[in-house]
Amino acid sequence: MNTRQIILDTETTGLYPNSGDRLVEFAGLEMINRKFTENSLHLYVHPERDMPAEAAAVHGITIEQLEEKNAPVFAKVGQEIADYLRGAELIIHNAKFDVGFLDMEFRRMGLPPIDELGCTITDTLAMAREMFPGQKVSLDALCNRFDVDRSKRVYHGALIDCELLGEVYLAMTRGQFDLMADSGSEEAEQVHAVAEIKRPARLKVIQADETELSAHEAYLDALDKAVGGACLWRGEAGA
């Protein structure tokens, strides 16, 4: 897997990109082969309008702070953001929101929207709803589920949220990569060779001892914690 992935988040003045709200913070963390690189992009942006108190209460960003930072307007950094995103798989929690704002800002500059930059979108909110139907799937809830430390998160900042989402995404998709994806690898060839060994018609059954049973119970307890209830394996064992 050599896909360039970017964990992405934004902060804005409000919820409605087509009704005057603007982007005020952008963060992207690059990941290649499930490893974070040093190629990150974090920018504060002056929205060229006021900052509603309810928005500042969420992300902690005020117009005064942006002016102290000499934050540029989006027109000054839009091309840099577009170039950074081009051709990548974007990992976003509630992608419709962030993509809506980026497309609006790009459109104001005459730049192409996200889908014309050759990007693909992976929405971790949709993933979580499919994995955990009927359960809370906010970023906070997923951090709790996967034991991701969010103690440093005072506000919903784009950069800290990207860092948390990166850990959550890796936890959510870890099972997909535990198996060897590269059938040409040395390890995969060894597994294939073992699979072709002829087994005897009858195999000796060895029962688990107390230590092994205890370890198994501990593993099931961990699964229970991860899913917030009785895991599937425990349910089947008791059936």
From TrEMBL:
State the protein's name. DNA polymerase III subunit epsilon
The UniProt record lists the Exonuclease domain at 4-178
Q: Where does a divalent metal cation bind?
A: D9, E11, D161
- Taxonomic classification: Bacteria, Pseudomonadati, Pseudomonadota, Betaproteobacteria, Neisseriales
Residue stretches in coiled coil: none
An example GO CC term for this entry is:
cytosol
* Swiss-Prot/TrEMBL catalytic activity: DNA(n) + a 2'-deoxyribonucleoside 5'-triphosphate = DNA(n+1) + diphosphate
**Function of the protein:** DNA polymerase III is a complex, multichain enzyme responsible for most of the replicative synthesis in bacteria. The epsilon subunit contain the editing function and is a proofreading 3'-5' exonuclease.
Entry GO MF terms: 3'-5' exonuclease activity; DNA binding; DNA-directed DNA polymerase activity; metal ion binding
Might you give the EC number(s) for this enzyme?
Answer: 2.7.7.7
Residues at the catalytic site: H156 (proton acceptor)
According to the UniProt record, what class of enzyme is this? Answer: transferase
Superkingdom of the source?
A: Bacteria
GO BP terms in the entry = DNA replication proofreading
Matching SUPFAM superfamilies: Ribonuclease H-like (SSF53098)
